[in-house]
Amino acid sequence: MKRSRLKKGDKSSVGGIVTEGIPFMSHEGTELTFLGASVNCPACKSTGHIVPIGPRLSSNFMGKQPALEGDLCACKCAPKPVMIASQSVMFESYEAHHLASMGYDAAGNPLPTEKFFDEQFQLLDTHTGKPLANVEYAIKRASGNLEHGVTDANGYTHRLAKTSEAEGVNIFCSGAEYA
């Protein structure tokens, strides 16, 4: 995957024009531009700013992070216009393994994030609010499976095995009175 650098005068998908550049950083005599640079947007008649989206290398031009093709213009338009590079010889290039390490697929789309639930519980005395240390317990999972253990010195149960969905559980403590 390749993303070209943007420069002053480049346009957005609705005709917005980049009005700021980085002094002394140029391509064919035109200043390269940066994240946060102003974009005059004729579609919504406002001044927006370039905001990042998608993969990028950590780079710094005169204290500013370069803007790339595909970044967005944060103006009053909805959806946000996409920035388009007018040149293709200055760019960032990414291999699939680099993209994956940044959280993107080979096309530069964000990888889906998996949600896991692996909770742990602290058992507290209902009268004093103090942790119930070294207490036997059983946890009944939504599946009906039981998990047994003994709380640690701070009253915590073991961490439950990961699940991909949230679930309700019931916790049972040994029958002694705790004070």
Descriptive overview:
It is a single chain. With 179 residues, the chain is mainly β. It folds into two domains: 101 residues, Tumour Suppressor Smad4 (Sandwich), CATH 2.60.200; 54 residues, no CATH class. 4% of the residues lie in helices and 24% in strands. It has one helix and 13 strands. The strands form five sheets. Strands 3-6-7-8 form a four-stranded antiparallel sheet, with no helix packed on it. The protein starts with a strand and ends in a 6-residue tail after the last strand. This is PAAR domain-containing protein. Pfam families: PAAR_motif.
Task: Please sum up the structure shown.
The protein has one helix spanning 96-102; strands at residues 2-4, 11-12, 17-18, 26-27, 30-31, 38-41, 46-51, 72-74, 83-84, 91-93, 136-140, 146-150, 170-173. It is mainly beta. 19% of the residues are buried.
Write the layout of secondary structure elements.
Layout: E1 2-4, E2 11-12, E3 17-18, E4 26-27, E5 30-31, E6 38-41, E7 46-51, E8 72-74, E9 83-84, E10 91-93, H1 96-102, E11 136-140, E12 146-150, E13 170-173
Antiparallel strand pairs: 1-10, 2-9, 3-6, 4-5, 6-7, 7-8, 11-12, 11-13
Notable characteristics:
179 residues, mainly beta, Tumour Suppressor Smad4, 2 domains, four-stranded antiparallel β-sheet, three-stranded antiparallel β-sheet, 1 helix, 13 strands, 4% helix, 24% strand, elongated, PAAR domain-containing protein, PAAR_motif
**Number of distinct helices:** 1
CATH topology descriptor of the largest domain? Tumour Suppressor Smad4
Low-confidence stretches: none
How many separate domains make up the residues? 2
N-to-C span: 63 Å
